[in-house]
Automatic annotation (TrEMBL):
Recorded superkingdom: Bacteria
Keyword check for Calcium: no
Source organism: Achromobacter seleniivolatilans
Keywords: Membrane, Transmembrane, Transmembrane helix
Protein name: DUF2938 domain-containing protein
Length: 162
């Protein structure tokens, strides 16, 4: 398999897994469960380009032009990066015959990024400690990232069959 083919598989796998995660978020929103505002992610990333990493409350920080689009772009770029991590760890054998456990493990492990990097930097504290319901928020994050891991597996399985 060429480098181009491997790259295409990784991009499709990451985008597919992110779409599965987004479908989960849409379901949660329909059920009345609060979901992440991607504009705030874009605002945080936008401020990174201006040298500001941490915010007291990201919702009260100065808006960034195009922050919603930047947030969605970042969301999918990170999903693709996590797919590349999975492919790098598991290799070609896994890409050709994916199994659930490695994808689910990577998916769940990626919850460390929002809990220990993004939430503190956006003003929610480590593992949502500064929110009214930190345990509930952490469990939602773990569930969402488990769904992402399932999406990695499902996307990889579909791609391997094509």
């Amino acid at each position: 398999m060429t480098t181009w083919e491997v790259t295409a598989r990784i991009v499709l796998m990451g985008a597919g897994a992110t779409m599965v995660m987004d479908a989960w978020a849409m379901l949660m929103k329909q059920l009345g469960v609060p979901t992440l505002n991607w504009a705030f992610v874009g605002r945080w990333v936008g401020h990174l380009f201006h040298g500001k990493f941490a915010h007291e409350r990201i919702g009260q920080s100065r808006p960034i032009p195009g922050e919603l689009a930047l947030g969605w772009f970042t969301h999918y770029a990170v999903g693709i990066a996590f797919a590349a991590l999975l492919a790098g760890i598991q290799g070609m054998v896994w890409l050709n015959a994916p199994t659930l456990l490695p994808a689910l493990t990577i998916g769940i492990a990626t919850v460390a990024v929002p809990l220990f990097v993004m939430q503190p930097a956006m003003g929610a504290g480590f593992a949502s400690a500064k929110t009214p319901t930190p345990i509930k928020n952490c469990l939602r994050s773990v569930a969402t990232h488990a769904v992402f891991g399932l999406g990695l597996y499902l996307s990889a399985a579909v791609i391997a069959r094509v």
